[in-house]
Amino acid sequence: MYNIIIGMNRKCIHMLTIGMDLTIETDRNGMVKKYKSKVADIQQDKLYIYYPLSVTDNKPAFLPSGSKVIISFISGDSNVFLFESKVLGMQKSAVTLVELYLPEEKYFNRVQRREHVRVIAGVNVVLDFPNSGQKFKSVTSDISAGGCAVIVPPDVKVQPAESGTIELSILMESGEQFQLTFTCEVIRIFTKNKLDLMSLKYIEPTPSEQQLLTRFCFERQLSDRKKGLYI
Residue limits of the Type III secretion system flagellar brake protein YcgR PilZN domain (predicted)? Predict the structure, then answer.
């Protein structure tokens, strides 16, 4: 079901915090389904989460007791961790919570990635380069939490090392949409598959912005792996 899990991190249990976003995946007879939730409480070897909702249609999930699940989350330093768990039952009070088994920290596994995962994705962007007087809309050809490659329209002339701003419209699998604006720097101009592209680096994005982009890239990476797509 998952072939991207490597290594161990004995501190990652401390990365789980109340209110943290979680992704829950189930595999029933080869049918993988993905849900979203948040951490409600942590008690020794038990993790309590709010009732999961499908990332595709926001419908509540039915997770029978004993079901095996994979939990993933993005830590504060933008690393992605996964661990196996099991549904222990429901806790009904003012809000219904799902009770999950929380394994020892040695069973938390970090997803292998380069400095920043780069994924194929067409994200709408608006770029502004004041020095050359160029402001235009375009689409990315690939993106990461550290930068992206953008299609250069025929009438745009921008030089390497030029600085400007980039505004990205990020659409998550859940349907949530975010607008992110960064200062950026042109790293290089190149041609690939008959398209003129510019490689951009974000300048000093905040940790929360990088975490959001990491989450977007992680979701796209899992989706691409299931489709057999690789960059």
Answer: 18-103
What is the extent of the structural domain holding 42? 20-110
pLDDT (tens digit per residue) in 106-156: 788 776 555 577 889 999 999 999 999 999 999 999 999 899 999 999 999
Residue at 143: amino acid letter: I
Q: Using alpha carbons, list the distances in angstroms from residue 101 to 19, 73, 104, 119.
A: 18, 16, 10, 32
Which residues neighbour 23 within 8 Å (Cβ) at sequence distance 6 or greater?
34, 35, 36, 55, 71, 72, 73, 219
DSSP structural state of residue 60: B
Classify residue 1: in a domain, yes or no.
no
Which two tokens mark 122? 């067409």
In this structure, how many other beta carbons lie within 10 angstroms of the beta carbon of residue 182?
21
**Residue finishing a domain among 92, 110, 128:** 110
Report strand pairing: 21-28 vs 68-74: antiparallel
